[in-house]
Amino acid sequence: MIFSRVLAPTLAFALLAGAALPAMAQQAAQPVAAPVAAAERAAPALVVTLVIDQFSANLFNQYRGQFTGGLKTLADQGMVSINGYQTHGVTVTCAGHSTVLTGMHPAHSGIPANDWIDTTTGEETYCLAAPQNTLAHGKNTDNGPVGPDQLKATTLGDWLKAVSPQSRVFGISGKDRGAINLAGHKADGAFWLTEGFGFTTYVEPGQSAEAKLAPVAAINARMIDRFTRQAPTWTYSHDACRRLEGQWVIGGQTFNSTVPPSNFSLDSSPILDELTLEGAAELLDNQQLGRRGVTDMLGVSLSATDRIGHGYGTQGPEMCEQMLRLDAALGVFLDKLSTIPGGAVVVLTADHGGSDFPERSSVEGYPAAGRVDRNLTPRVNDALKARFNLTANPLVSSAGGLIVVDGDRKSLAEPLRSQVVAAAVELLNAEPQVALAVSRDELLAEPLPASDNPENLSLRQRLRLSAVAERSPDIMRAYQPGLTGSGRVGATISSHGSPWDYDRRVPIIFWWPGAEGQERFLPMRTIDIAPTLAHLIGVKPTDAVDGRCMDLPQFATGRCEGQKP
């Protein structure tokens, strides 16, 4: 509801004096009706979902004033939620991507982490494992055979395909879990970059690898030719980033923070996202997305920010270069989207946030930053072995916590398993570095909490939103804020995955060509994106979702169903 900004002088005087309002003044004090909405827009011809891996709200805000390309366009012209959230507690890539276009918490999407240990077999299961499939490039590389089977929820692309089979739905990324989660179950293609080949995909039984790769065959040929002639390199593109150079000691090794990094690789550089956006532009053209009289969808997951964050941290010249080069590449991509005759709508968000490596953070004003005591879990294991007369360590790390197993990583028999879980929870909660340890089964017995205001969720509730039966670890655990696992130069020196806001808060931006800038300070969740986009394109979720539709008045499509007028 819009209220008049100006009070008539006599009305203002009466209010200040506390006098009774005359009838005319009472009438004037009534709220002014909202203006009549402009003619309703047709559904956009193309929906583009951009997910920047590990693009925290902190990182977006830190560089916002330096953006001059696509991120500046989105920030200045889009509907920006400055308090966007991944609401759950285990903030990792596969889980975060699973929320964006399903409208579901990981507890319902079925994707609690990037992988988990199956305690019936002792084997590790990848979040998108599909052993019946093959990989189109003919090698069992990356994460092995994958597909959308492990994703228990349907996606916006699935909802669209149900009512418009002729619509085209694609996903593309530097990672398989970025492409497949955004593409969904009924996609026309989900592609990701693999070293030495280009874009690959999964092939289901009875399908042809050549046919599945057809949409990216031309760009793959160009990439191989280009890289054969000249290997890609990473040099400074922005001289201002040099001021962030430094030298740090991590795990007894010296880390030189500079560009190019000493362990340069294509998939841990800005080149990864530039190639992904080039592939996305290729799909726009050769699939004629948004140009065929129906609504199409394209999901683009950009992985370089995550790879750079893990390998080099978030506050050095490497991330500075990444932010500014990504901004430029997105500018070119948005210019291309602006030519779609039927109009495109873009939503940008992240699968999770992240923080810098603690050695640098601790000298930049965050004394609580540090690394988890390497002896913490061994110490608890020793106590458990002594108490229960066990020969093997009963606690084994699994994403977001610990599983309770025998020497073959298979679940202990009951009642021993439950007894060890209870004792382990007690011992872990007595450790100063542990903020909370709780049994998964105990969490699953509790109802899913309302998450409309993610700022107010307790630590326990955040972990509940990540808990999935048989997939989440037996004990879900959160370390104190500022703590991260051990780091090794040349591998991972900083990470994410915690329930704290530096890992949960992400930007959420809606944009379309010609949009006028607007900022919203009230919290929005990534699970709200799918139902909001569904409203804009006139489809309904095929299942109940955890998120809610958010009004975007500039589209003049009417208010979300169930909203107050």
Outline the structure in words.
This protein has 20 helices and 22 strands. With 565 residues, it is an alpha/beta fold. Strands 1, 2, 6, 7, 8, 12, 13, 20, 21 and 22 form a ten-stranded mixed β-sheet that branches. It has a four-stranded antiparallel β-sheet with strand order 15-16-18-17. A two-stranded antiparallel sheet has the order 3-4. α12 packs antiparallel against α13.
Q: Largest sheet, described in full?
A: 10 strands, mixed
* First-to-last CA distance: 9 Å
Helix content: 25-40%
Which value, in Å, is the CA radius of gyration? 25 Å
> What's the mean pLDDT score?
91
Low-confidence stretches: 1-39
Strand content: 15-25%
Quaternary arrangement of the chains shown?
A: single chain
Number of strands: 22
What's the helix count? 20
The rough form would be described as globular
Q: Structural class, please?
A: alpha/beta
Topology, element by element:
Layout: H1 9-17, H2 23-28, E1 46-52, H3 57-63, H4 70-77, E2 79-85, H5 93-100, H6 106-109, E3 115-118, E4 123-126, E5 134-135, H7 156-163, E6 169-173, H8 176-183, E7 189-194, E8 198-200, E9 202-203, H9 209-213, H10 217-229, E10 246-250, E11 253-257, H11 271-286, E12 296-302, H12 304-312, H13 317-337, E13 344-349, H14 358-361, E14 370-371, H15 376-388, E15 395-398, E16 401-404, H16 416-429, E17 434-439, H17 440-444, H18 459-464, E18 475-479, E19 483-484, H19 501-504, E20 505-511, E21 518-520, E22 524-525, H20 529-537
Parallel strand pairs: 1-12, 1-13, 2-21, 2-22, 6-7, 6-12, 14-19
Antiparallel strand pairs: 2-20, 3-4, 5-9, 7-8, 10-11, 13-20, 15-16, 16-18, 17-18
Helix pairs in contact: 4-13, 5-8, 11-13, 12-13, 15-16
